[in-house]
Specification:
Number of domains of chain A: 1
Largest interface: A-B, 60 and 60 residues
Number of helices of chain A: 13
Radius of gyration of chain A: 19 Å
Oligomer: homodimer
Distance between the termini of chain A: 17 Å
CATH architecture of chain A: 3-Layer(aba) Sandwich
CATH class of chain A: Alpha Beta
Largest sheet of chain A: 5 strands, mixed
Strand order of the largest sheet of chain A: 1-7-4-2-3
CATH topology of chain A: Peroxisomal Thiolase, Chain A, domain 1
Shape of chain A: globular
Helix content of chain A: 25-40%
Chain lengths: 379, 379
């Protein structure tokens, strides 16, 4: 396996982007990425598209050649990768593997989702497909309910409080207010987060990520560049909550993290900055534990202490995270890489952290059936 | 790139399988494949699932870990690949590439689709997503209409007749009658094919492939086995018919075929047997030309002469093809490999051909936006 680099990034703003089509968003991100990488469409030897469910959201399937063609990339293999909310991360994982093993020298990865043209009820139904339709969603266990159960168990087992959960929301809303590409730029207080409209006990609306439109792209290359993908690992776990032995930890994240740390030859303590999959506030807390940043059960007080703020010892989701930057599903795993690279380049503006030499992204699918962990390093 | 082998195959019967779920079908195919390969679930280092649109057909998304887990495969990367009707071929292409380049030694590929639980109108709508939704399907240009236009043009340009098209249907219906796993086992005459219920001029119902349920699996390995994947290539072309300069040829198939022949170091004339993507009768004729088996425009008389029958000079779709074996979309590209291997092993029963040392599969997505060409050789 040879070194693999991220030679360019491109991203649209995230939000409820009425009048912007899925194709339009993907082409904007790809065009920005090509320009940033100094490449032309004909340089792409393959296209990896991360997308959860464009057919249901927009009616358009066969998405990879559809997007590639619109961006001027013709002839080469163009494939859509689906791994629920980890679709973007999975596309990246396969692209990284193909370049690392010598199958290609230059490939394009694009994550995209257009969600806001559907009604809220239909969006909930589409999202529920990422769980076990028969055992969970068909009987009402949609993701807010599933992650609420996970949160309740974490509270019961480790003394995690609603204030700990709300601290994640307050931090990520603040961070997003500094990100011009974020969906929500509304700073909130702990009191506001706690007093939000109830969704599923113990969650208020402020514990839940957003339904967004958006796209992100990265150029993966074997050619030397400033930032290297030191590791990228994908792992699986049970789709249904009922099949897990302990719902306060996600096996797929632990497996992927262990592989990624080994591949990069580093430990969790070497990470300077992370973007993690905060689809719900509890998911960010559990990610802190599963990624080895803090001991099992200790994430609540640690995050509430400010340790993961922009000026903390380990800044997490400085982009605003899925919570406030937004969560156009297929785009999320690719956008995490773009946001980390802005920090690594020192181009993150008012949310810039002091040190970003080694960065980690964690992208989760469903309630943990897929997890992708990527580690970036400055050369 | 090192040699890659198909060490095992497994397949369900294809048909309108009421009472059989998508998960159930996938697990049956995987279990048969594991048994044929002499492997256990824990031997799989990754799982590649080819599926077009389970979310729309069944409500279940996040399909790869869902299926892998049900088959007893845990922890490893499990990803769904979507490339319209070439989803199975695309999963195979990426699996082959990962094993050839040394990323894995043993992986499982499973193609699956459960289509018949939806109404015919809804199925047509879901399938239309593989074209350009905005420019084609939303204004009524569904696939029968699109391929009918292609057929009309081929007839105009090369003198191809309705009898030539019908000859494909007659052959494939006969072949399927010899295949216990086929969806339709009804032998038809040329007169019956021509007098079928009209669908889209010049097509009758006998020019169109079936809506089926089914699954197929193959075990891909770097370990020595009797049958080697000599080449596997995926290529892209325009999604919309309006973007093609000549609609009587599919650029993606020509590109993929050229790459595959080069990779295998052989010519079209070296192929003993083929399974090609006869979603409509015209697609089989055009495939003959794009794969280099016959000169451009000459496919109609050639196929009608019996050259591609079981006892012809180049047997094509001895399984019965999509036309009569059935077309559970995601399964098709994987099932083609299973059917060729039955012939290569001499296990094809009454449809066994005399010589099957070098075999070719062609799996098409949409009206040619994706094509995957695979070449198998006996060691």
């Amino acid at each position: 396996m040879r070194p693999v680099h991220v030679a360019g990034i491109g991203k649209t703003a995230f939000g409820a982007l009425a009048g912007r089509s899925l194709k339009d968003l993907a082409v904007e991100a790809i065009t920005a990425c090509l320009s940033d990488a100094g490449k032309s469409p004909s340089d792409a030897e393959a296209v990896y598209v991360g997308n959860f469910d464009a057919p249901s959201f927009t009616g358009q399937n066969h998405l990879a050649p559809f997007i590639a063609g619109a961006a001027g990339i013709h002839g080469v293999p163009a494939t859509r990768f689906e791994a629920a909310c980890a679709s973007g991360g999975s596309a990246l994982f396969h692209a990284m593997q193909a370049v690392a093993s010598g199958s290609y020298n230059n490939v394009l990865v694009c994550g995209v989702e257009k969600m806001t043209s559907q009604t809220t009820a239909r969006v909930a139904q589409i999202l529920a497909g990422a769980g076990d339709a028969e055992l969970e969603s068909n009987i009402g266990a949609t993701f807010p309910a599933i992650f609420a159960m996970i949160a309740r168990r974490h509270m019961h087992q480790y003394g995690t409080t609603r204030e700990h959960l709300a601290a994640v929301a307050v931090k990520n809303h603040y961070n997003a207010s500094l990100n011009p590409h974020a969906h929500l730029k509304k700073v909130i207080t702990l009191e506001q987060a706690l007093a939000g409209k109830p969704v599923a006990e113990p969650f208020t609306i402020y514990d839940c990520s957003l339904v967004s439109d958006g796209a992100a792209a990265v150029w993966i290359s074997s050619e030397p560049a400033a930032i290297r993908i030191a590791a990228c690992a994908q792992a699986s776990g049970p789709v249904s909550l009922a099949d897990k032995t302990d719902i306060t930890t996600l096996e797929a994240t632990r497996l992927a993290a262990a592989k990624a740390y080994k591949q990069a030859g580093i430990a969790a303590s070497d990470i300077d900055i992370a973007e993690v999959h905060d689809c719900f506030t509890i998911a960010e807390l559990i990610a802190m534990e599963d990624l080895g940043f803090i001991e099992k059960g200790g994430s609540g007080p640690w995050v509430a202490s400010g340790a993961t703020g922009i000026n903390g010892s380990l800044p997490v989701n400085t982009s605003g995270g899925l919570k406030a930057k937004g969560h156009p599903i297929g785009a999320t795993g690719v956008a995490q890489i773009c946001d980390l690279i802005l920090q690594m380049r020192g181009e993150a503006g008012p949310r810039q952290v002091a040190k970003a030499n080694t960065a980690l992204a964690q992208n989760l699918g469903g309630s943990g059936a897929t997890s992708v962990v990527t580690i970036l390093q400055r050369n």
